[in-house]
Histidine kinase (Streptomyces achmelvichensis), 409 residues
Amino acid sequence: MTRTEYPWLLPSAMADPQEPDPRGETSTGRRRRTVRDWIVDTCAFVLAALFGLIAAEASDQYNTSEMVVLADQLLGAAACCALWVRRRWPVGLALVLTVATVLTPVAGGAMLVAVFSLAVHRLFRPVALVGLVALVGSVVQPLVRPDPTVNYWVSMIAGVVLLLLAIGWGMLARARRQLVVALRERALRAETEAELRAEQAQRLAREAIAREMHDVLAHRLTLLSVHAGALEFRPDAPPAEVARAAGVIRDSAHDALQDLREIIGVLRAPGEGDHGDRPQPTLATLEALVAESREAGMKVTLDNRITDTASVPAIVGRTVYRIAQEGLTNARKHAPGAEVTVAVGGGPGDGVTVAVDNPAPVDDAGAVPGSGQGLIGLTERASLAGGSLEHGATGDGGFHVRAWLPWAA
């Protein structure tokens, strides 16, 4: 028999890799004893020594040979001392002590401690092997070293019962340890998953706020750009028009700062919902958005065929508003002077469609380059609302944005 044929006989292979030691490491391999290990080993040695002293006293009463008594005492002392190496050679030590117990009853206490420790710290297969050998030894021992004062069957049954108690107690302790380890791992896993969920929720909230900031501030800043450009290209404009443009710039800058404060306030208020106390746009506020764009000098045609705007779901109305807002912002930046058409229609069961179209720009000189992030954000908004969005250039050089959003019947 070689070690490669029976690798589970190796001391390192006998350890349970799933059971961590008190220091948090696996029980495979050698490690230094902790204070708890010293206390446990000392208690095990003392218990085995007490059991050995009782057996030695009984053996001294019915053995007349002093050499036999001395040999029993020496073997018992050696068996108790051998328990200090049970952590390194658990299976080998348990087998040796099982054989020694057959020859001398004084080593019985050390054998029970070794078997108990083996059942606590090792897998079932080596425990079953050693337990089978120990059961055979419990049957043979009363024959090899009979006790004249006790019947054979009584001695044999007592030895078997003690052995089974040691093995059962050890396996019960092992099962309890494994349960504690499993509960600890489950709690750690649950805590880790909770942290991941919290991080994911925080990331999603930040992405939503970033999209909100883009949609709101881009609209305001393009208004500033339009009126500032008008002042730049018409320095000889009448004072009334200059004052009106300056007033619009001032109001737009104030509104942009106010929107930015409200969004940052949501970030700073952990107890608020996704949008805090800030009023959100709906389909009913779409006309105000168009009117604001017209005041900035845009030519906008609104075709809203939904008369009962209050019945539109909040998320659908808000998404329609943001799509129209982004479409107007893009038209103002990339197609200045072009007439923009905003069409909204649909109903319960059919869904809501919103389309923003603009022809080719009248003057490319005033166009502002874009990054395309707004359209990506609109696509994500439509997908989150359960709808879809498509966009692209038309054949005449214009641009088309169309979205469909569900509206339950």
In short: Confidence is low (pLDDT under 50) at residues 1-28, 271-276. The chain is about 60% helix and 10% strand. The longest strand covers residues 339-347.
